[in-house]
């Protein structure tokens, strides 16, 4: 697949995720929403720039959208670690709303470590608990920022 096509797909996926993050951030208290809202708006803008750049290259004829030589099968794409991590990130963002920040973060960190190749369960559990506790301490205690609480917990 040509780089410009990859840019189009990546830009579209990033735009969707950024829009979900921006939409979700409006449910947070004003003080808690500033950081995720500004990051998501920045990502929205950057994904639009990347999409326009790819679209211009396609429209100028640099890339032929039809008749690609090899189209990867869906199971090849689904086994790609980047694809799996991207979907894990989307589930993490949605999970924050339902199960809360701490639970979602712990599951996301553990899952990400496993996807990236860490197979020692003791280290996965220990590092997951450590970083989740560290994030809780930094945001709740040091910065005084309330963490999102989910609907279920």
Q: What brief labels describe this structure?
A:
75% helix, globular
3D architecture notes:
This protein has 153 residues and is an all-alpha fold. Helix content is 75%, strand content 0%.
Helix and strand arrangement:
Layout: H1 3-25, H2 30-59, H3 74-78, H4 81-99, H5 101-115, H6 121-142
Short overview:
With 153 residues, the protein is mostly helical. 75% of the residues lie in helices and 0% in strands.
What composes the largest sheet?
Answer: none
Q: Which term fits the overall shape?
A: globular
Helix/strand-derived class? mainly alpha
Proportion of residues in extended strands: under 5%
- Helical content (DSSP H or I, runs of 4+): over 70%
- Number of self-contained structural domains: 2
* String of helices and strands: HHHHHH
- State the separation between the terminal residues, measured CA to CA: 44 Å
Radius of gyration from the CA trace?
Answer: 19 Å
Low-confidence stretches: 64-68
Secondary structure: number of strands: 0
- The count of helical stretches stands at 6
Average pLDDT metric: 84
